[in-house]
Amino acid sequence: MKLRKNILTLSLLWITLFASAYDAVGHRIMANIAYQHLTNKARKQCDKALGKHGIIYQATWADEVRSDKNYDYSYKWHYQNLKDSMTTEDLKHLLENPTAEGEHLFYAINLMTDRLKKNPSDAEALKFLVHFTGDLHQPMHLGRAEDLGGNKVEMNWFGKKTNVHAVWDGQITESKNMSYTEFSVYLQDKFKPRNEEFQKFTVLQSVEAAYLVRNAIYAYDKSDANNYHYVYRFAGDLDEMLYRGGIQLANLLNEIYK
User: Fold this and answer.
1) Is pTM beyond 0.85 here?
2) CATH 1.10.575.10 given to domain 22-256
């Protein structure tokens, strides 16, 4: 009986740690927004590869397979360490030379895009691209190498110890208390007046926007223990990153499947 209890305790601990390792809601919000903005041709191709609404349901696959040793090679693809005080030209250079600092997020997005252009039915590449485009719009996936993208920057979040990366992976989103479908509708209503503007943004402009938010996150005075202040300060930035991510993913897929 004691052995069973220990196994159950370890199993629950593993589930808790794994569940907190990524935010399914955020990725599905972006994939859902993207799905609404796909051309008929792109939507049919995505549905053919992954099943109807598959880009939404498979949006977290790239995180889930990190528990499979066969996918250990993809671990570094989820982030792009950026230095402080980078200029637009610096970011542009890194996007155009994605292996200049190792094979990370920029490299992975380029690789999956190329794979899909060569084989539109490459389901694995599509699942990776959906997820990595989402990661590109999570500012702490563009964080500092020395603190592992904010994973080593401790925070108290409504009475619980956590870190900045985890807050941005899901805890701000969770504070809205909406499902991914409700959040998607909310964002599309909120940004409808700017929809055409967002559709014209390039990947570089999305990286610049995420980088600016990333810098603001690092600059925030974390001694302010009132998390309502934090949510008030950054909720708008999070909304824009999620919406940008969805539109940028749609742009990429529409271009691939045109």
Assistant:
1) yes
2) yes
